[in-house]
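Much of the work behind modern protein science is quiet bookkeeping, done one molecule at a time. The protein below has been through that process, and both of its lines are reproduced in full.


***
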Amino acid sequence: MRRGLPASFLRRKLAATIGKRTENMTLTATRRAMLTGLAATPILSSAPRAQGAFPDKPIRLIVPFAPGGNSDLTARACAPAMSAKLGQPVVVENRAGAGGSVAAQQVARMRADGYTILLGSNGPLTINPTVQANLGYDPMRDFMPIGLFVRTPMVIAVHRSLPVQTVAELVAHSKANPGRLGFGSSGIASAAHLSLEMFNAATGAGITHIPYGSGGALAPDLVSGTLSGAITEISTALPLHKEGAVRILAVAAANRLPQAPELPTANEAGAAGYEAAAFVGIVAPTGLPDPVAKALGEAVAAAVADPAVRTRLEGMGSLMASATEATPPGFAAFLQRETAWTRAAAERAGLRQG
């Protein structure tokens, strides 16, 4: 009779077999878990961005005015389209003060890497350098133009209780009540402030200037009647006009606007040659690397061309930049023209420093 194998040998053989099967089962489970995890992971991009390419983190877009005004509304309309083009969030931050100079001075000192950019407008880029001494920054030296978004005409708007229907009646009313008519603007040395001073110089109206932090900030007081009126961007006043809360007497533009064709131009209303508009675009600290400047410029151009953005901003009364103005060279040329116009206008209004 054949003798059986020792019991100790059988136990060792069984243990080895069980261990091998356990190891195989563990490897199989691990592979399955890995495949399941990969299948559940969202695909962020079919063409991953090269490591170190711009941008690889969110971009801060600094608005140098309080929320609710034309600059803020434009920034928030354009930021999503810029984000889609860049592949990173463009985060809007409001930092008001000194007609935009506070934010402009801070951004001018930032690292020129494209991750902090400024929503540039009349105040910090053309008016403040003209009317303020010791500004603390030089827009021509410290900023690089990236692209223009919009131009937004100013309007002359009054509270519905003011007994005037035309610009001529407004001027006559103000002269008959010297020092009693106060108009709001989006801030000292803002485009609206300069526009009001130009209006006073052109008509002799003598309207008192009352500065606010933005067009949106003055709107409640204009609706309530605390303010007799305002010179502000049409984007702020048009919704209030349509609701009947305020009355727009004229638009400071060369032509009537398709969004409100019933509104006369200032020239038609008797303020000959009176035209004024706020502009909004993007600038960045000087010294951006060429690829970064190119990427930001393409994002601005994409926002200007986006149908949803155009519908929203044109619906507010803004005039979209041309394809050329939305580029760095085009915006640079625009700023040169705007600066020359601002200097001449400030001199006529008696605001020029030095």
